[in-house]
Amino acid sequence: MSLSLAAAQPEVPAEADDGVWLECIECGATYAPFDEVRYTCDEDDGLLEVRYAELPTFDDFEGHGVWRYAAALPFEEGVTTQEGATPLYEVPRIEAGVGVEALRIKHEGMNPTGSFKDRGMTVGVAVAKELGVGRLACASTGNTSAALAAYGARGGMETLVLLPAGKVAAGKIAQASLHGARILEVDGNFDACLDIVQELAALGEVYLLNSLNPFRLEGQKTIGLEILEGFQHDYGAYPDRIVLPVGNAGNTSALYKAFRELVHSGALDRSEVPKLTGVQAEGAAPMVEAVENGAEEVRRWESVETRATAIRIGNPVNAPKALPGIRETGGTAIAVSDEEITDAQRDLAEEGIGVEPASAASLAGLRKLRANGVVGDDERVACLTTGHLLKDPDAAAAAGGDPEPVPADTDGVLEHLQE
Ligand code: F0G
């Protein structure tokens, strides 16, 4: 199985370009990486992964941000707005409340456009330039569209985004709009948008930059690499577990790939790989269903609903990469309610950390897994928060307190404060 932590490093195929190639995770077919546009395998439609003749160890990383990890990426540099190097916040009160040995919040909302998507786009848009494609496109619950619009603009390329009408948070649409994307509001959910954009890509109309694009996941690997280095620096040990929100399961796949490559290069022992633990909203939890049932495949949910609109997804397209990651690392998956998500969003806000609802799912999931004993009190845990509070100002305002009207004079204000 090519996605096993124990797999041997493959032979370098003739199609490799400077030690980089694409490989089907199902049948092992190999392809040249930059000769022509391809998202899935010609033979069996399987997902592709980027493969390297040489895998790095920690000594090969230098510099700051995503491109510190160039030795683990297909290029030395990309189209950049200085993404990555996000904070790994301490949260002593939440840590004590949850009752684990250590808890840190990896806040991906601190990226340039306010979500982890920037890490994927700095690589993905560079590949698009290398391929010489015209229009870039994605389906999105919002954050991917914001990042694509910004990185496309930076790269001087045209961008098209398909969004589920009425289900995208205000901040994200504003970003896509100002950065100059052409925005199509589709009368359907995210999964329908992705079906359409995949068909447009197959017709050669657009270059697809959803996480089906294997190069995007390369950039997102760097989240995992930063967490490992951060924990090693602060605790002299890697985290036991990483808890993250799951939509299309791109991050779950990317983090697993990062760890797998370090195991294969000898930089990380198998026993040191953090347990990948995915969290979904109860109203959109097909991955959780598959993990709980021990299923090989994920069943598409046609109808999905959650306040955490970023992860309102019924067909996690990267499941074939992510399920082995959760299983091989000894992780799990859990669903949380919208109320639990909002409670966790408030708790993070009380520690000064502002996240959008989907992000707070990770903490909500950790709470539940600690309460039911799956997570032990001796664990060192990283929770990934994927997007910034300002992405979804309406959700933040609804979760917070209401403004109080007062007259425009000090006496009136004092009187009001004493009430
Ligand atoms: N958190 C946030 C804030 C997201 O925007 C997304 C995905 C996820 C988590 C899920 O990540 O897909 O890697 O499992 N947002 C995509 C978008 C779908 O269009 O912005 P995943």
Quickly describe the structure.
With 419 residues, the protein is of the alpha/beta class.
Key words describing this protein structure:
alpha/beta, six-stranded mixed beta sheet, four-stranded parallel beta sheet, 13 helices, 13 strands, binds ligand F0G
Word description of this protein:
There is one protein chain. The chain has 13 helices and 13 strands. It has 419 residues and is an alpha/beta fold. Strands 4-5-13-10-11-12 form a 6-stranded mixed sheet, sandwiched between helices. Strands 8-7-6-9 form a 4-stranded parallel sheet. Strands 2-1-3 form a 3-stranded antiparallel sheet. Strand 10, helix 7 and strand 11 form a beta-alpha-beta unit. The longest helix is centred in the middle third of the chain and has 22 residues, at 214-235. The termini are far apart. The model has no long low-confidence stretch (mean pLDDT 97). The protein binds ligand F0G. The site of ligand F0G has 22 residues, from helix 3, helix 7 and helix 11.
> Structural class given helices, strands, pairing?
alpha/beta
Mean pLDDT across the residues is 97
Residue fraction in strands: 5-15%
Rg estimate, integer Å? 21 Å
Helices, strands, pairings?
Elements: E1 20-24, E2 30-31, E3 48-52, E4 88-90, H1 92-98, E5 102-107, H2 117-131, E6 136-139, H3 143-154, E7 159-164, H4 170-178, E8 182-186, H5 190-202, E9 207-208, H6 214-235, E10 241-245, H7 250-265, E11 275-281, H8 286-293, H9 319-328, E12 332-336, H10 338-350, H11 357-371, E13 380-385, H12 393-399, H13 410-418
Parallel strand pairs: 5-13, 6-7, 6-9, 7-8, 10-11, 10-13, 11-12
Antiparallel strand pairs: 1-2, 1-3, 4-5
Helix pairs in contact: 2-3, 2-6, 3-4, 6-7, 7-9, 10-11
This protein binds ligand F0G.
